Amino acid sequence: MPIHNREIATKLNRLANLLEIEGANSFRVRAYRKAASTVRGYPRSMSDMLDDGENLSKLPNIGDDLAEKIQTMVMTGELPLLQEVEDRTPPALSELMKIEGLGPKRVRKLYEELDIQSLNDLEEAIKAGKVQKISGFGNKSAEKIKLRLEKYSGNEQRTRLIDAEEIAAPLLDYLKDAKGIGNIIIAGSYRRRKETVGDLDILITAKDSSPVMNHFIRYDDVEEVVSKGETRSTVYLRSGMQVDVRVVPEESYGAAKIYFTGSKAHNIALRKLGTKKGYKINEYGVFEDNERIAGETEESVYECIDRKYIEPELRENRGELDAAADGSLPRLITLSDIRGNLHTHTKASDGHHSLKEMAKAAEKLGYEYLAITEHSRSLSIASGLDRDQLSRHLDEIDELNAQLENIVLLKSSEVDILEDGRLDYPDDILKKLDFTVCAIHQKFDLSRKKQTERILRAMDNPYFHVLAHPSGRLINERDPYDTNLEKILEAAKERGCFIELNAQPQRLDLTDEGCKMAKDMGVRISIASDAHSTSDLKHMRCGIDQARRGWLEVKDVINCLPRNQLLELFKR
Ligand code: DGT
Ligand code: CA
Ligand code: CA
């Protein structure tokens, strides 16, 4: 089987991470990450392209050296430099990165400042209160790390949801061909649309499980069969992903869906409610004195404990069971509620397509408006527009708007927030825009206090509208910068600013918890794909997943508004 683009990207990212832990030159680290992201998102497979005799170095972010490395990976499946770096890195350091929330920067800090080289060291240091004292950590994040350490079983590698989808789709297609199969669904954190998944939990109904299990373990991509049984089998795929398959009888499908969708915390709370009413709830149904009284559908199980159906994204035991009892469950936002996209790039800065191509693609999605947000010209972003370039760009938007019938392009910019909190364009430029999307692109290492202040100062500017990718994190790649989100949200509320939920699948920034916090504090969200190409516009759906996990409804999201009402909001 040829190597997937995803596997190449994973190796390049891993190389970048290990080099970053070592303290390698940041340009070099970034070069590998950018290459990884190019490969991951590229529509054609590297191995096909090489077969066709194409030169990989013509791809963005891929030079001769990287083209050669990719070719080696395609031919041998290995990246020798990665092996070299792996050999000289203490294995426990890369192990530390498997803990959610610990990226290479933080691992390096822990190693340098506290000589932490293993999970054990880390646990001890948290107990001793040492981690809490390092800048960038604090009590809260130490507490979170502690919880995750407790959960961590040692070989768990969490996979971004979008990558899990790419692995799951062909497997699901394959499984559907098994003999005697009834229903099939991917349950677990995947169904809850969590930003990363630990493994895939596939639930199948069938009268006879043997043919299903036999078919499953013969899947081409299986690397190792961990266990094979009548009701449950587990394998590892070549990507390292663990897959659990469970087979239950048809009449238990609803109860089993609830059980295997989780979360565990939701299930435990649900079972307690059952016990209170004298019922036993498990994956086979709801039982009263050993008699099955429900379980064929999920609704039937929730009904037994006097609850309305709860959407999978909400099942985290964060208040959803109470809300389902008193009718206050949110009516979660869906993709079709979105009327436009407020963060996109074209060729004018670092995007791949023209204004017109982006406009046409957005029109096809049924959007009423599309904001073009090229970068401002700051020190860190060479691709940004200076005053004259922006001015010409805005003229082009006017010209194109005169031709477009079903969609309006909004004039905006992704304005860099400078270290002292000033915006990267003067007011006389900013006032020509319909609104701004403002973001941090450099100086990620400021203290929590300074970083928070920086954003609050920026929000003082009356031309500040939306705070883009508010934490700067890249899932599994870059830690968030240290800020006080509650303070930022308070300030946004006071000043009439909005917070972005960046829908790029590797960002998903705000987190689900951040979304819920914003909603509870009355700060509205822009869900935006930060598209750099026409196909990136589709990532809106990843933002919708995250928004739903954050309890967001139509009223909480500004790009569910018609254009006129939206523009009203930007009059501060
Ligand atoms: P993951 O894989 O770490 O992203 O998270 P999940 O939620 O997919 O967890 P996983 O794969 O360990 O288990 C799948 C579901 O099975 C989980 O969401 C709830 C259920 N489950 C697993 N273990 C237990 C348990 O000990 N008690 C209960 N009530 N449910 C469990
Ligand atoms: Ca799972
Ligand atoms: Ca599992």
Automatic annotation (TrEMBL):
The places in or outside the cell where this protein is found are: Cytoplasm
Provide the catalytic activity annotation.
a 5'-end 2'-deoxyribose-2'-deoxyribonucleotide-DNA = (2E,4S)-4-hydroxypenten-2-al-5-phosphate + a 5'-end 5'-phospho-2'-deoxyribonucleoside-DNA + H(+); DNA(n) + a 2'-deoxyribonucleoside 5'-triphosphate = DNA(n+1) + diphosphate; 2'-deoxyribonucleotide-(2'-deoxyribose 5'-phosphate)-2'-deoxyribonucleotide-DNA = a 3'-end 2'-deoxyribonucleotide-(2,3-dehydro-2,3-deoxyribose 5'-phosphate)-DNA + a 5'-end 5'-phospho-2'-deoxyribonucleoside-DNA + H(+)
Q: Which GO terms describe its molecular function?
A: exonuclease activity
Which residue numbers delimit the Polymerase/histidinol phosphatase N-terminal domain?
A: 340-419
Which E.C. number(s) belong to this protein?
Answer: 2.7.7.7, 4.2.99.18
Tell me the Gene3D superfamilies matching this sequence.
Answer: 5' to 3' exonuclease, C-terminal subdomain (1.10.150.20), Beta Polymerase, domain 2 (3.30.460.10), DNA polymerase beta, N-terminal domain-like (1.10.150.110), DNA polymerase, thumb domain (3.30.210.10), Metal-dependent hydrolases (3.20.20.140)
Q: Which keywords are on file for this protein?
A: DNA damage, DNA repair, DNA replication, DNA synthesis, DNA-directed DNA polymerase, Exonuclease, Hydrolase, Methylation, Nuclease, Nucleotidyltransferase, Sodium, Transferase, Ubl conjugation
Q: Name one Pfam family in it.
A: DNA_pol_B_thumb
InterPro entries, sorted: DNA-dir_DNA_pol_X (IPR002054), DNA_pol_B_palm_palm (IPR028207), DNA_pol_lamdba_lyase_dom_sf (IPR027421), DNA_Pol_thumb_sf (IPR037160), DNA_pol_X_beta-like (IPR002008), HHH_MUS81 (IPR010996), Hlx-hairpin-Hlx_DNA-bd_motif (IPR003583), NT_sf (IPR043519)
Annotated Helix-hairpin-helix DNA-binding motif class domain residues: 54-73, 94-113, 129-148
Matching SMART domains, A to Z? HhH1, POLIIIAc, POLXc
Residue ranges of every copy of the DNA-directed DNA polymerase X domain listed in the record: 3-316
Names of required cofactors: Mg(2+)
Q: Which PANTHER family match?
A: PHOSPHATASE YCDX-RELATED
What is the role of the protein in this entry? Repair polymerase that plays a key role in base-excision repair. During this process, the damaged base is excised by specific DNA glycosylases, the DNA backbone is nicked at the abasic site by an apurinic/apyrimidic (AP) endonuclease, and POLB removes 5'-deoxyribose-phosphate from the preincised AP site acting as a 5'-deoxyribose-phosphate lyase (5'-dRP lyase); through its DNA polymerase activity, it adds one nucleotide to the 3' end of the arising single-nucleotide gap.
> What is the recorded name of this protein?
DNA polymerase beta
Tell me the classification of the organism that encodes this protein.
Answer: Bacteria, Pseudomonadati, Pseudomonadota, Gammaproteobacteria, Cellvibrionales
